[in-house]
Amino acid sequence: MSLRLFDRLDSTKTQYYHFKAVIVAGMGLFTDAYHLFSIAPIMRLLGHVYYKSNDHQFQPAVESSMLAIALLGTAIGQLIFGRLGDLAGRRRLYGLALILMMVGSIGCGLSMGTTRGCVLASLGFFRFVLGVGIGGDYPLSATIMSEYANKRLRGAFMAAVFAMQGFGILASSIVTMAVCKIFGRIYPLSQKDPTPKQADIAWRLILMLGVVPAMITFYWRMMMPETARYTALVEKNILQATWDMERVLDMSHSQITEGHTLQPSQSSYPLFSKQFLQHHGRNLLACSTAWFLLDIVFYSNALFQSKIYKTYLRDEDPSKNVTAFEAAFEVASLQAIVACYAMIPGYIAAIFLIDCIGRLRIQAVGFIFMAIVYFCIGVPYDKYWKHHINIPFMILYGLTFFFANCGPNTTTFILPAELFPARFRTTCHGIAGAAGKAGAIIGAVGFLMASQDDGQNGYEKALGMRITLIILGGICVVGMVLTSLFTKETKGTSLEENE
């Protein structure tokens, strides 16, 4: 099958549709980050509403379950939607993933029941539904952007899609702070009861507002045509692929059919066959392992910044009478600060560097610098940091997010959408992403348990944090070493060449 349209896709100039695709695909990642990272301040509000007799603190098992269930749903969604994306098409599943996110967002805010157990069970169920939708969005967004982009700037466009995650984190913090400030001023608080009944409305409103960006882009998603690569290579409909390209790119039919011919692979081996494992098994293992290791580190830190910065949180001191709104505001403000000075700059740096430096190099460098920073704050933790989490510590800790985002957090999202054939692309991305979310569950739950105060003396507690930070640094070293397992750098290459 000789096709010229892939050459036209790879060599076309940057057009309006490319930027539109970044926004449409990126809104899924935006919504994903909004909900996954808004849970920390939400848990503060829930603690004040439903755990008044326990210093407003959740039991570790409850908090861990609430975090893990959304990540579990994400992993399941990545596997299911990843496979269906190759069988039924990217576009057909794209709207369904967004619908699940919208249903989950609204359902979380409308969590039913009048008792603590009913509300938490309902919230957990809808966070699972939300997670399935989020998981489905990962392989579809990455693959759609990779199949539309030209090969010269494909990495930058995909990194831009993933960078929307950083703005989702910032948006969740801003919305939380705004809601808490507004509710705090409208409803005067009593010193006897610093948790008004309106606090139960505030956390629901914060979660439901996360549906807005998904609703805005739903129509655009429904209007997107199937990618030309899927239509031509999987459905074998060259004419339809050409028409679809004419709809979205500023090209005539004659321009699309001009150019150098490419010869896509004619192989027909099934998924997980001997031939598949020979050609792609090593890449799949490397992608999955790198994502697994990265998410252990990234999610354990990102979801529990408030545990790291607890020195700055008045709510951690039982002697201080902190209102529910003030407690959530403080956690959200810390997340916003870290997002502004570390997370978002890392995403932006990745956009500009990834097509210059290459995927593998930026991933290896990101891992090793993350390891260095973790060792710098972990090894001397009990001597320098356990009593005063000061500005130098915050700067160093923030650098772990910068190097993650300008490194493996971005590349693990990009590489699986470039390394595999069109008929396995979303499936393999979903498998790698699900491995990552398994690591996220381990990291989030394990880090929470390590940071709990079980009545031990200060030194033993600090030792637990010290060991945790050193372990995270060691995981980054392993990730850097395993990056060498990737057999091919995808910078500047056609997706068909990678097959």
Automatic annotation (TrEMBL):
Q: Where are the transmembrane segments?
A: 21-42, 62-81, 93-113, 125-144, 156-179, 201-220, 284-304, 336-357, 364-381, 393-415, 427-451, 463-486
- What GO terms describe the biological role, i.e. biological process, of this protein? phosphate ion transport
Question: What keywords appear on the UniProt entry?
Answer: Membrane, Phosphate transport, Symport, Transmembrane, Transmembrane helix, Transport
Indicate the segments forming the Major facilitator superfamily (MFS) profile domain, all copies: 21-491
Query: What membrane topology does this protein have?
Result: Multi-pass membrane protein
- Which Gene3D superfamilies does the record associate with it? MFS general substrate transporter like domains
Q: Where in the cell is it found?
A: Membrane
Listed GO MF terms = symporter activity
An example of a Pfam family matching this protein is Sugar_tr
Keyword field contains NAD: no
Where is this protein chiefly located? membrane
> Which InterPro entries would you find in this protein's record?
MFS_dom (IPR020846), MFS_sugar_transport-like (IPR005828), MFS_trans_sf (IPR036259), Sugar_transporter_CS (IPR005829)
For whether the record's keyword set contains Ligase, the answer is no
Q: What Gene Ontology terms describe where this protein resides (cellular component)? A: membrane
Q: Which family does it belong to?
A: Belongs to the major facilitator superfamily. Phosphate:H(+) symporter (TC 2.A.1.9) family.
Q: What is this protein called?
A: Major facilitator superfamily (MFS) profile domain-containing protein
Provide the species name: Corymbia citriodora subsp. variegata
